Amino acid sequence: MALIVQKYGGTSLANVEKIRHVAEHVIRTKQRGNDVLVVASAMAGETDRLIKLARSIMDPPDERELDVVTSSGEQVSSGLLAMMIKSLGHDAISFQGHQIRILTSNNYSKARIVKIDDEKIKKALSEGKIVVVAGFQGVDEEGNVTTLGRGGSDLTAVALTAVLKADVCELYKDDVDGVYTTDPSICSNARKLKKISYDEMLEMASLGSKVLQARAVGFAKKFRVPIHVRPTSRPEEEGTWIVEEDETMTEMEDVLISGVTYDKNQAKITVIHVPDRPGIAAKIFTPLGEEGIVVDMIVQNVSTEGYTDMTFTVPRSDFKKALRITEDIAKELGAKGVTFDDRIAMVSLVGVGMKTHAGVASKMFSTLAREGINIMMISTSEIRVSCVIDEKYTELAVRAIHDAFNLGEEK
Ligand code: ASP
Ligand code: MG
């Protein structure tokens, strides 16, 4: 008998009809002889609605109370789903984050999971119940409600799979039926991948591919949790497996590249003419880190006469805060000034095959050049090449690169 964790996204639980459809699949899985634990996201649009509501009272909202508000979306959906399963004749029980005790840090709205108690879940499963856990929520040591960041139900599901040593973490989505070579709404010939490595998915997720929460993929990699992304509407269909890298992913020429992603949620900030001496980078980036701002790409120019320029990117949602902090530090450091551009996008090419094949980056650059798209910044990792470009060319860039690497072709 297997233990299967199934997580359903908000669109899959958008109304009573859809909740019934989900409950039926959950029951079917149970009736095949498996134990089933379900993680529920808030009903479609609910988290956004709750954030907006909070903002209409206080902007930015009080951080503690915002988590009290946003976590309620999952409370509703988990309760409704458990109720639906029961109404269809199967025993079920819902748990909120604090009830099973998903212990987290106290960084509201982006809390980290510290520990999960599994006794209550194990007991309920052993009694034959289908367990429904509210995704996205946790509780800190003092009992404050916390949330795990947008898309955090993925993390709840992956973490529970790891803790319970479940056999698979199935992530059911309504808007996508797997992981694609790129965003199908931009490229009509985007292809669904049968499998992808954690590292590739990590790059894709953190670079703006909206399929999975990046933190959830990182967690899955660490604990080797096999993930299966599947379509809710056709739940028996194979989706995309996210697993450990194997030889088939790097050996063959045609699997050189897994995908092209883009991220418009980007802004760049440049500190101009800052003294180039030990400790300067630390001075600039430490306060940003302390404010929880994740700096992504960093470029420091070659220094001339003891001065240099430092450019970096931040999520656009943190841009104003980051700019304010940077301007203060720039003044302190005696820099000439700060410039910015909050209309940029990052387009990236991802594939483990890059490790063993040369010429990938140059092909990407020449493709952008052919389209007349200027590259503002470049960064690379072992399995990724990213270019910062003007936001308005994002779609064009993605299509051109996807075509240049023949990603749309059927293998
Ligand atoms: N409801 C939360 C969100 O919309 C968490 C999730 O859906 O995974 O971000
Ligand atoms: Mg969601």
Could you characterize the architecture of this molecule?
This protein has 411 residues and is an alpha/beta fold. It has two domains: 173 residues, Carbamate kinase, CATH 3.40.1160; 145 residues, VC0802-like. Helix content is 36%, strand content 26%. Strand 4 and strand 5 form a beta hairpin. Helix 1 crosses helix 4 and helix 13 packs across helix 14. It is globular and about 75 Å long. The two termini are 35 Å apart. The relative contact order is 0.10. Aspartic acid binds next to helix 7.
The CATH homology group name of the largest domain? Acetylglutamate kinase-like
How many separate domains? 2
User: What CATH architecture label of the largest domain applies?
Assistant: 3-Layer(aba) Sandwich
Shape: globular
Tell me about the biggest sheet?
8 strands, mixed
| Strands side by side in the biggest sheet | 3-6-2-1-9-11-12-10
Q: Which fold does the CATH topology of the largest domain refer to?
A: Carbamate kinase
Classified by CATH, the class of the largest domain is Alpha Beta
Classify the helix fraction into a percent range: 25-40%
Radius of gyration: 23 Å
The share of residues in extended strands comes to 25-35%
Mean pLDDT level: 94
What structural class do you assign from the helix and strand content? Answer: alpha/beta
The total strand number stands at 18
* Hetero compounds: aspartic acid, magnesium ion
| Number of helical regions | 14
- In the predicted model, the low-confidence regions spanning at least 5 consecutive residues are none
For the terminal residues, how far apart are their CA atoms?
35 Å
